[in-house]
Amino acid sequence: MTQAAEPIGLSTNDGSDRSLDRDCTTLSRHVLQQFQTFTPEAQDLSALMNRIGLAGKLVARRLSRAGLMEGVLGFTGELNVQGESVKKMDVYANDVFISVFKQSGLVCRLASEEMENPYYIPENCPLGRYTLLYDPIDGSSNTDTNLSLGSIFAIRQQKGEDLDHSASDLLASGREQIAAGYILYGPSTMLVYSIGKGVHSFTLDPSLGEFILTEENMRIPTQGSVYSVNEGNFWQWEESFREYIRYVHRTEGYSARYSGAMVSDIHRVLVQGGVFLYPGTVQKPEGKLRLLYESAPLAFLIEQAGGRATTGHEDILDVIPSKLHQRTPLIIGGREDVAKVESFIQNGH
Ligand code: P6P
């Protein structure tokens, strides 16, 4: 007599239904679960995150084939608004984020490291009340060497009509962000995000073409062994930062990790604990990293995970920029690790 098939929906011995449920916990579903409602705002953010996921998939696909295709790697020969040489991947990824939001009715404006002024998607304005701020490829120096890279994003609610396209409402503190996160293009492609209800990570399952929930409510260790900084800049820093580096050099238990892509280094700090820092220099006290689409989104995320992010004198999320591409010093990580760096600054070393 043959064994009757298990009724669908009941858990089976191997827990296969549980894995089915996990495989169905996609990004868009998870956002709705976070809201525990289906209001228009919840639906909007769910659709927004789904499109950011699509952008991540398109960039990941391009990166995975970069060595096999013409015209993917290398420089364009142009300089961006930051005066930096532009990689072909920078341009491609920048265009991807614009394309995924066309005909979405969601995002009216996109502000990017690669564009001097925000890009408007006319068909979405004024209906679309959201603005996407993003660094399409963070760590583009790693593109031609097959090392980890990232994309960083933040979502803000448009304030006012912005009829003159000045986007002046974007010059506001990071506490105005309604969502933020990053995509990490590494051995696997991960998307980590928060809508202010904790930090959650997803892993791209290429066989499904979906980001599947990996970890919910991530918490950064308050203290870790990793310090992540480009020590090649040692002699350009203020003395307090040199004193901190001398401290970790002579103190047992610290390890230096630095990849050249902030998303990769900060993901390590989120998972294992520690601190990432990019101080200003005597010549450029404002630092290298940008506030609105690099430091503020990452600060939002790390604070949601129980960590801290500061300029050394002020919480990153409290800084109100005077210009779109404003730069900032950044110290970000576990509470105790950030406090240790601050102690050298406050003691006026
Ligand atoms: P440096 C990449 O260009 C980036 O913005 C961050 O991702 C990275 O941490 C940093 O700059 C690297 O800068 O000066 O150490 O090469």
In short:
With 349 residues, this protein is an alpha+beta fold. The chain contains eight helices and 15 strands. The chain has helices at residues 16-23, 27-35, 40-64, 88-101, 239-250, 262-272, 291-304, 335-346; strands at residues 75-79, 85-87, 107-112, 119-120, 130-138, 149-157, 177-185, 189-194, 200-205, 210-215, 226-228, 255-256, 275-278, 308-310, 330-333.
Model description:
- The mean pLDDT is 93.
- This protein has two domains: 22-215, Fructose-1,6-Bisphosphatase, subunit A, domain 1 (Fructose-1,6-Bisphosphatase, Chain A, domain 1), CATH 3.30.540.10; 226-347, D-Maltodextrin-Binding Protein, domain 2 (3-Layer(aba) Sandwich).
- The protein is built from eight helices and 15 strands.
- With 349 residues, the chain is an alpha+beta fold.
- It is globular.
Key phrases:
349 residues; alpha+beta; Fructose-1,6-Bisphosphatase, Chain A, domain 1; D-Maltodextrin-Binding Protein, domain 2; 8-stranded mixed beta sheet; binds 6-O-phosphono-alpha-D-fructofuranose
